Amino acid sequence: MSKLPSQKSGEMTSSSELIPITLGWGVSGGVAAALFYSVANGLLRHSAETIEPSLVSAVKAVGTCLIFLPIYLLAIWRRQPLLPPGKDLIWLIVGAVQVQVIGSIGLQVAFAALGVALVVPLYLGTMVASSALMGRFFLNEPLRPISLVALLLLMLSALLLCGGAEQAFMSVGQSSPQAKVLGVSTWWGVFAGSVTGVSYAILGIVIRRAVRHSIHPLTPVMLVSISGSILLTPLAVYRMGWESMWQTPSSQWTVMWLAAICNAVGFWSLIVALKRLPVLYVNAINVSQAAFAALAGVWFFGEFATPWLWSGLVLMSIGFAVLGLGTTRLFNRPQPMTAVEPLRSPSANED
Asked: Is residue 337 within a helix (H) or strand (E), and if so which, with residue range?
């Protein structure tokens, strides 16, 4: 067996050597989250046309819970550290509950009214801007001048996107059976999409706060999915009734379960990224969903490609490019030198 390389006591190493590894895992997690969430958004958009929002959200939560439950039970059996300290655990539960009641259902309502091409960029821009402000005030994460410029561009891009809301509603909401059942209007869809972004930002903040402790990375996933399963399943039964719910076509059940799988993998990837990067920069990577959503909405769902949509996406891309510049400068900043504790050889009487 090869020996571990030894290091002399008092020898110094720069923490900047560890940054490429941390940054690489964080960026990889963010990219994977963006890809799987993009597929999930397309599937959820398909379901939003005809299926009750609470049922779609409940299936997504139950599916995520079932996928990761065996791994989590194994962690419990191995007595691994699972939960953060009391106050952070309370905030994590609050974040999980509010994202299911507000974020998940709000997203389905917005999809039914305005479609995926407009809603995804809208809620992502709102999420990133909200994350930056909340991360600064609640986590003391850096908010540099260049980041403020980027946030201003993101807010302006959200306003441009809202300019095309009426046309989006004509393209989607007026022909959507579920939008008629819910009685949503253009600006109700805009409100639902924006509130969804704020809700997801709150969840990102409480997750980031929790994963600073030594907890299992699946803990946030399980709390969110269990909360959704407990809260949204009875709500779906109440709104639809058992008979109507089980009469849902098998093709729609397939779409909802596929969305749950993609959402689960995306959520796991997001946790990996949040353990290694600030919330603001994780969300900046994650917003590549905006371009995927616009293309999917126009090509696959026949949504209107308005000048408002494209100009909003262009301005949003500029904002994220500026934000990415700030990210690069942050991680290229010289790091302090830290002493490395020398490795101890195992003694004969140690297990």
From this structure: strand 337-339
Q: Are 61 and 225 in contact (CB under 8 A)?
A: yes
Please tell me the distance from the alpha carbon of residue 199 to that of residue 132, in angstroms, as a whole number. Answer: 13
Is residue 339 within a helix (H) or strand (E), and if so which, with residue range?
strand 337-339
pTM: 0.78
CA angle 197, 125, 65 (to 5 degrees): 40
Rounded Cα distance between 92 and 315, Å, is 33
Residue 338 DSSP class: E
Distance in angstroms (rounded) separating the CA atoms of residues 115 and 46:
9
Both structure tokens of 342? 């020398």
Strand ranges (E), 103-249 = none
Q: What does the block give as tokens for 31?
A: 């990219």
Burial 52-77 (b: 16+ CB within 10 A, else e): bbbbbbbbbbbbbbebbeeebeebee
Residue type, 78: R
Give the torsion through C-alpha atoms of 331, 32, 193, 96, to 10 deg.
-90
Q: Cα(99)–Cα(106) distance, rounded to whole angstroms?
A: 9
Q: Which of 40, 66, 59, 51 is nearest to 240 (CA)?
A: 51
Question: Which residue type is seen at 46?
Answer: H
Task: For residues 182 and 178, give the distance between their C-alpha atoms in angstroms, rounded to a whole number.
Answer: 6
Q: Where are the beta strands (DSSP E) in 91-186?
A: none
Count CB atoms within 10 A of the CB of residue 175: 11
With cut-offs at 50, 70 and 90, classify the pLDDT of residue 350. Answer: very low
**3 state SS of 142:** coil
The residues facing 1 across adjacent strands are none
Residue with tokens 């891309």: 317
CB atoms within 10 A of CB 282: 27
Q: How confident is the model at residue 9 (pLDDT cuts 50, 70, 90)?
A: very low
Half-sphere exposure of 266 toward its Cβ, with a 13 Å CA cutoff?
23
